[in-house]
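debug: dumping io for the single-chain case to check the tokenizer round-trip. Nothing else runs in this session.
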Amino acid sequence: MKKILWGAMFLGLAITVPIPTMAQVSIHIGFPPPPRIVVAAPPEVVLLPHTGVYVAPDLAVDLFFFDGWWWRPWEGRWYRSRDYRSGWAHYNAIPSFHGRVPPGWRDDYRAHRWQGREWRYERISHPQLRQIYQRNYREQSRRQPQVRPQQAGPQRYQADRPQPQERTLQSDVGGSQQSRPQQSRSPRGGPEGRR
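debug: decoded output
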């Protein structure tokens, strides 16, 4: 009897002990963020003409500012962040603005020429860029129509009430015709619309 009891206890332990120690396999596929941009001060930017895109020409890497986001390509992928120093997240497509940026923009910057014409660019500091973006954002918000949320709950359908129709009556006197509005009568005998 003792052998059966010890055998049952051993079997019970053998079944319950490995359950919490089972290995779990999980695979996470992601892209590492690009290396940090180390600068002594916030980078000054320049607006590329007719593009709406700001670039940081003094950095060794391409760094763009567009629509409130900092953008940068790295190892064939695009990353964006609200802060140029950190917080970079992988962006799964090519940004919409990138088609407007010519590949030789740095050469144009150094030569003070844009598409064959003289380019008198203005360097914009980080605080100025923030002000420009906030002003543009406010203006854009004001121009967009305000959409009111619909009332919650079921909507009742209200049919248009019938309007009094004009009837032509013939008079017995002389056969002349007179026009005057006549109100339709409801089944109760009164004019419609009264309740």
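debug: round-trip ok. The mean pLDDT is 76.
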